[in-house]
Design brief:
Layout (H helix, E strand, L loop, with lengths): L2 H13 L2 H8 L3 H15 L4 E3 L4 E3 L1 H27 L5 E7 L8 H11 L3 E7 L4 H10 L4 E4 L8 E15 L20 E4 L5 H13 L4 E5 L3 H9 L5 E4 L10 E4 L5 E9 L6 H11 L2
Parallel strand pairs: 3-4, 3-5, 7-8
Antiparallel strand pairs: 1-2, 5-11, 6-9, 6-10, 6-11
Length: 290
């Protein structure tokens, strides 16, 4: 049994696809398929049920999954220990990020990481599934660290605040509320909303605010990036709620303060159940400015 076999098996199991697993591992799909077949042959069992539309783990595959994570974590720890003995910081850190990070300049932070730790490779992975998905991946170890836009507590995860912004109501210039001094969530129940999929931090914050006000709302359109939301809103195709700095003056849409103190909060998510590698610990410190 070779480490790469477990790595490729884990990639397939966690992405649910040989194609996506190969993309995550950075190899061709045939290499992943061959490695998994070799692993199954060596263990004498089928680990993955290969269906036409989807694949699933067999009971044996489910049993192997946490052990594979443990073995690969041990390999990483061994490499980390050797590097530490030599007084160097080396390794690979997988960092999840949001499409929008507010005033936090992630490119500048990563540049500082490279300058301080040239032998640490940071693999940046932008989420297209929202903060809830990134948090799950930190919990499973698919991500070492993740920037997420969420509030509250999550079992097995510790959070460190990166930045925060007020949320504002956004509408077209011709909207009846465009010239209001402020708008309350209670006044927006009849508005057609452009919003973000369930699991996105911004969506969760707004959903909770409407629930607390006892107001039902209609989400007529779902998108996954702020610029598209602004463009739709500017053309009168709905309204939305965004972080204030996500609405530049030339956006073609109007930002109106909310009466409620709703906030977008960017936090760094770290597993509280799995120790960070030395490289991941250093990257986290650089992101937090400590």
């Amino acid at each position: 049994m070779q480490p790469h076999q477990l790595e490729y098996f884990l990639a397939v199991a966690e992405t649910g696809s040989f194609t996506r697993g190969a993309e995550r591992a950075g190899v061709v799909q045939s290499a992943v398929s061959t490695a998994v077949k070799q692993l199954e042959h060596e263990l004498g069992v089928a680990l993955i049920e290969r269906g036409y539309h989807r694949l699933a783990l067999t009971p044996e595959g489910e049993a192997l999954l946490p052990r594979a994570r443990e073995v690969l974590s041990s390999f990483a720890a061994a490499k980390d220990a050797v590097a530490s003995a030599r007084g160097t910081v080396v390794g690979t850190v997988v960092l999840g990020t949001l499409a929008y990070t507010g005033r936090f300049d992630i490119a500048a932070a990563l540049q500082r990481c490279r300058e301080a730790y040239p032998q640490v490779a940071v693999h940046l992975r932008q989420t297209f599934s929202g903060s809830a998905s990134s948090i799950d991946q930190v919990r499973t170890g698919d991500l070492d660290l993740a920037l997420v836009a969420t509030q509250g507590r999550v079992a097995g995860i510790e959070f460190h605040e990166i930045g925060t912004e007020r949320l504002v109501f956004v509408c077209s210039p011709g909207h009846p509320l465009a010239r209001a001094r402020s708008v309350s969530v209670a006044d927006l129940g009849e508005e057609p909303f452009v919003d973000y999929p369930t699991g996105w931090g911004n969506r969760t914050t707004v959903d909770l605010a409407f629930a607390a006000a006892g107001v039902r709302r209609t989400v007529s359109t779902e998108v996954t990036d702020f610029p598209l939301a602004r463009s739709l809103v500017a053309r009168g195709l709905g309204v939305t709620i965004l972080p204030e700095h996500a609405v530049p003056v030339d956006a073609g849409a109007v930002a109106v303060p909310l009466a409620e103190d709703l906030r977008w909060v960017c936090r760094l998510a770290i597993s509280s159940e799995r120790p960070l590698s030395r490289a991941a610990d250093r990257v986290a410190a650089m992101l937090l400015g400590t």
